[in-house]
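User: For a benchmark we're assembling, each entry needs the component sequences followed by a predicted structure for the full assembly. Here are entry 17's components. Please fill in the structure.
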Amino acid sequence: MTPVLEVENLRVDFSGRTAAVRGVSLQVQRGETHCLVGESGCGKSVSALAVMGLLARGAVREADVLRFQDTDLTRLNERGMARLRGDKMAMIFQEPMTSLNPAYTIGSQMAEVFERHRGAGRRAALDRAAELLGRVGITAPGLRLGQFPHQLSGGLRQRVMIAMALMCDPELLIADEPTTALDVTVQAQILRLLQALQRELGLSLLLITHDLGIVARMADRVSVMYAGEVVESATAEALFAAPTHPYTRGLLACIPVPGTVRRDQPLGSIPGTVPRIAPGFSGCGFRDRCTHARPACAETIALRGAAPGHLYRCVLPADWT
Amino acid sequence: MSPSAAAIEVIDVRREFRTGGGLFAQARAVRAVDGVSFSLPAGQVLGVVGESGCGKSTLARIILGLLPASGGEVRVDGRSLQGMDRRERARLIQPVFQDPFSSLNPRRTVEEIVSLPLAAQGGVPRAQMRDRVMEMLARVGLSAEMAARQPAQLSGGQRQRVAIARALVLRPRIVVCDEPTSALDVSVQAQILNLLAELRRELGLTYLFISHNLAVVEHIASEVAVMYLGRIVEQAETDALFRDPRHPYTRALLASVLTPEPGHGIPDVGLGESYPDPANIPPGCRFHPRCPVAEARCRTEPPDGLVRDGRLVECLLA
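Assistant: Structure for entry 17:
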């Protein structure tokens, strides 16, 4: 089956000073949730922006393959990308308040998407908007359409963003930390909504998060990123049952898990901090923080199989202890 | 004073803000903190949890003396902080804030930042001041060469270590940590939590630890207070609260925590679509509009101050 999104060897440099993404490959299959997980600066958001053609000026994007369904994204100009964005591929961000225009009503912002991509009239576009607001669990959609973003709570705004992203029936939804700015109870509601919509609409979801709890509960497949590279990729079950890269194992040891707490014992932690990677850097970006580092870690390390469908980028054998 | 006496007592603290009242809007009173009381023995850690707008940060600022209370009292070692000299208060109670990027002066060196509380006290000779600063830096895991650096040259975790060193250099009784790890990556968050736990044991500190992250609070706190719309709605010893939450809001909060267990799905917390608004606190139980088990009497009868089995649970049905 052809994946909805196929990325191979994606590289992004910022003004020749920072190698933000260093050869990321991933595939999102139809109807699946693929989680891209990592800490700040690991390149997960930049990878998504590169796919959407939304990188800032001064960023250089290269890729061997960047394909959405049958479209080769590397060959599209800005106009071609603009036709896809908000139509067949849509994106939602962490802070809905900065993505919504404060000066326009919810209704007119939602309608605009439909008018532009579908050539629909205002009346039809507003009907579609009301239908989708209902679908994302907003009661009294008619009232909400006439309101401005500041009149809504954070959770409602994120529901509006999701509804807006769904206006044109996208095949792929990229969600970049969609619940990070929300309270935990609201986060659970929004994630449930995303899951339900995905099932109903057969949506493919690329979900970017730093939260391993969200990954465990949402992902079919996971790619763990560190310093611009995918260091491990597996199904969610395999990743949590048999984490293989030293970074993945370290990260899992760092999170306090309710119910397993021993207050007299320290949490696991990873010494040091996330490095900044300059262009020309080679080898494992984690080696300075890794207790198993050896000279071979300074050379380019290929992805290896730990099990079928489970890849990791490390010189250690899969069953290291 | 006996060793079990309260290191800090908070007695019916309230804070109201007035908003609006301009040409078009009618003035509204926001009851951000609406009658909070607790006392905490020395060496303990009280975790304060709750969602945005519950008043936990306002409470922290009142306790630190950064914001006057509209009512109530805060006592440290039995002495009221009201009207206390700022320098004296600084020796008793110190803050560690969420964002070390904005709480450290970018133009000062680490040594200057950490010595400022000592310098402000006056009467400490220069050489001795330097010794105490260097000792404190070593204690929080910063090497001596960090002393000459400025905040911009440090990572987020290192900056938070500087903030902790600054808070502890006067050897205060109480440290108020307001979301101290929320701006940090998970791998660094664990380092800082371990450091705070170690320092508490070594220096006999008492923490008020404010966080929205229940897993973090469970790890560090000995007792937990759950805040909702300006009040503590449940308070209990940590293990008891996590094992047997009594308030429906506490239950919803705990149910919302996503542990890294694949296949468990996303929980239905059953709180509906309405969100709490501190400018419009509902009558009766303030949680009733979102409560999945509310009854008719919850709409009229406030459960304030209810105790069940020796533990505070402000719920008529618990």
